[in-house]
């Protein structure tokens, strides 16, 4: 038997063993589907949408307070602070992602 065939038999044996143990197939998937979970892009988009919604809600509450439609100052302040903290967290996550990307880019192979 040649080396390629030995490697294939060994790999197939490991895959069968993984299945018997209830583990996932370790081979890389050519087509990653939604059943494997949302992509990084989808997660980031969803979370940025939440940050945007908090900003819009805080702006609306502030406008309603200014016009006298609501009188609950605490609710306005809490919404504004939540929006500020959400935006600050999003900026920090972005900075860490950029830092990680730069580190990967600078790696020597």
Word description of this protein:
This protein has 109 residues and is an all-alpha fold. Helices cover 72% and strands 0% of the residues. It has helices spanning 3-20, 40-67, 73-105. α2 (40-67) packs antiparallel against α3. The chain starts with a helix and ends with a helix.
Write the layout of secondary structure elements.
Elements: H1 3-20, H2 40-67, H3 73-105
* Poorly predicted parts: none
Strand content: under 5%
Cα(first) to Cα(last) distance is 34 Å
User: In DSSP terms, counting alpha (H) and pi (I) runs of 4 or more, how many helices?
Assistant: 3
Q: Got a strand count?
A: 0
The secondary structure category is mainly alpha
Helix content: over 70%
Along the chain, the helix and strand elements come as HHH
> Tell me about the biggest sheet?
none
> How confident is the prediction overall: mean pLDDT?
81
Radius of gyration: 25 Å
Gross morphology is: elongated
Name some characteristics of this structure.
single chain; 109 residues; mainly alpha; 3 helices; 72% helix; 0% strand; elongated
Compact summary:
It is built from three helices and no strands. It has 109 residues and is mainly α.
């Amino acid at each position: 038997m040649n080396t390629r065939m030995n490697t294939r038999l060994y790999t197939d044996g490991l895959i069968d063993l993984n299945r018997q143990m209830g583990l996932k197939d370790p081979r890389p998937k050519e087509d990653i589907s939604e059943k494997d979970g949302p992509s990084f892009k989808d997660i980031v988009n969803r979370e940025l949408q939440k940050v945007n919604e908090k900003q819009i809600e805080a702006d609306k509450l502030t406008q309603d307070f200014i016009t006298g439609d609501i009188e609950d100052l605490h609710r306005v302040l809490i919404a504004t602070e939540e929006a500020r903290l959400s935006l600050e967290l999003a900026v920090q996550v972005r900075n860490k992602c950029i830092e990680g990307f730069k580190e990967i880019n600078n790696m020597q192979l």
